[in-house]
Amino acid sequence: MQMTVGSRIVIHGARVGDGERHGEVLEVRGDGGGPPYLVRFDDGHETLIFPGADCVVEPQGQAG
Question: Which residues of 16-29 are buried (b: 16+ CB within 10 A; e: fewer)?
Answer without folding.
Answer: eeeeebbbbbeebe
